Amino acid sequence: MNDQVLRFADPDELVERAAGMLATQIAGYQSDPERIVHLCLTGGRIAQRLYDSFASRLEAAGADPGRMELWWTDERFTSTDDPARHAGPALAKLAGKFQLDPARTHPMPAADGVADADAAAATYAKELGDVVFDICLLSIGPEGHVAGIFPGHPSFDLQTQTVIGLSESPKGEGDRISLTIAALERSHEVWFLANGDDKAAAVAEALTGSSDTPAGIVRGRKATKWFIDRDAGHDLPWFECTW
Fold it and tell me: Number of C-alpha atoms within 13 angstroms, CB side, residue 68?
């Protein structure tokens, strides 16, 4: 299935449009009154801004937050109260707008001084089971990494596991936990988020389907959408703006 590229003038427009589309898409899935929507969240500044806008739009879109199951693509393996973790800020933004169901909220394990990142990853893999994400949000790095999966790194080669621990991440930020490409590709829809000219080369390469970068490989089973601002898209050979 072809990627859909949605290009916006600036990060503000990207955030507002993506948040509105996400709320509307979740409401659409929930037109089946028995449907629980599995949403996988990612880290990154643009994603955190999206969560704030998204949370404000759910009610107006007709979506039911109580029928959302929240997962994470990757996480820093640090203490729960570490502000560098992805889950804490995201949950704070969401919980400020609606009540979260703890039974349907699945942040990755935090460091407790006992289990290491590998053991924590195994715990999350058991919790995840065979869940298929309805929508998986992914930020893309300047070198084409997604979640904790980096090009030219052993994490890129692990296709049989669903969750892994990383003790030597190329980002050099300590231990991490990440879904693998195999787990990410269990998504019905993958939505990439990219802003800034430092992402332009990676976006252009990924959209060719390059097998050299994780972003070039991960695709949704039904749809793959790219939400990019003008700077992140300036290396593309076309201009397409769709909403």
Answer: 25
Instruction: Say what the alpha-carbon torsion angle 159, 217, 228, 40 is, to the nearest 10 degrees.
Output: -30
Domains of the chain (ranges, CATH numbers) = 33-229 (3.40.50.1360)
- CA 225 from chain center: how many Å? 12
Helix (H, G, I), strand (E, B) or coil at 139: strand
Over the stretch 126-172, which tens digit does the pLDDT of each residue have? 999 999 999 999 999 999 999 999 998 878 876 678 999 988 766 66
Rounded distance between C-alpha atoms, residue 127 and residue 72, angstroms? 12
Distance separating the N- and C-terminal Cα atoms of the chain: 18
**Left (φ > 0), alpha (ψ -120 to 50) or beta: where does 193 sit?**
beta
b/e per residue 80-107 (b: at least 16 CB within 10 A): eeeeebbbbbbbebbeebbeeeeebbbb
Task: Give, as one character, the DSSP assignment of residue 108.
Answer: P
Q: Which residues contact 150 (CB under 8 A, 6 or more apart)?
A: 141, 143, 156, 169, 170, 171, 214
Q: How confident is the model at residue 229 (pLDDT cuts 50, 70, 90)?
A: very high
For residue 17, pLDDT over 50 is answered with yes
Is the pLDDT score of 213 beyond 80?
A: yes
Strand order in the sheet with 74-76: 74-76, 176-179, 163-166
Q: For residue 75, what pLDDT is reported?
A: 95
